[in-house]
Amino acid sequence: MIKVVAAIIKKNNTYLIARRAAHKVHSGKWEFPGGKIDLGESPEQALEREMFEEFGVRTIIGKHVATSCFDYGKFQIELMAYEVDHLEGDFRLTDHDELAWIHLKDLAKYELSEADIGIWKTLAASL
């Protein structure tokens, strides 16, 4: 089971999602941004690190929102999503080729990574 974290960043009633670049596994799929937890890291530390490494932004990690597990066949993901506040920095793309700020109701129009679908459903149910 691979432990992964995701950022739920909200701005003006929209949420940030990112599309995985062509050189990444599951390329072209959209996700709540984040990444793998390294050995010795807490989920919050991993998410703060990933947001800086992948997007060049500084963040504050808030409360846990939801966890979604998915079996991709060759590996399983446990995706833990946290509320995240963007502090500073302009989003730059390294592992993604596009960003979008969208309303939750519009997420069905995007091909989400399977593990992220569970996070979306939890968020949508809380509205």
Write out the strand line-up for the largest beta sheet, numbering strands in chain order.
Answer: 5-1-7-6
Q: Tell me about the biggest sheet?
A: 4 strands, mixed
Element order: H for helix, E for strand: EEEEEHEEEH
Structural category: alpha+beta
**What percent strand?**
35-45%
* CATH architectural label: Alpha-Beta Complex
CATH topology: Nucleoside Triphosphate Pyrophosphohydrolase
Q: What's the end-to-end separation, in Å?
A: 30 Å
Radius of gyration: 13 Å
Give the helix proportion (percent range). 10-25%
Report the average pLDDT across residues: 93
Number of helices: 2
Domain tally: 1
CATH class: Alpha Beta
Uncertain runs: none
What's the shape? globular
CATH superfamily: Nucleoside Triphosphate Pyrophosphohydrolase
SSE layout:
Elements: E1 2-8, E2 10-11, E3 14-20, E4 30-31, E5 34-36, H1 43-55, E6 58-71, E7 76-88, E8 96-102, H2 114-125
Parallel strand pairs: 1-7
Antiparallel strand pairs: 1-5, 2-3, 3-4, 3-8, 6-7
Care to describe what's here?
20% of the residues lie in helices and 43% in strands. With 127 residues, the protein is of the alpha+beta class. It has a single domain (2-125), classed as Alpha-Beta Complex (Nucleoside Triphosphate Pyrophosphohydrolase). The strands form two sheets. A four-stranded mixed sheet has the order 5-1-7-6, sandwiched between helices. Strands 2, 3, 4 and 8 form a four-stranded antiparallel sheet that branches. A hairpin with a 2-residue loop joins β2 (10-11) and β3 (14-20). The chain starts with a strand and ends with a helix.
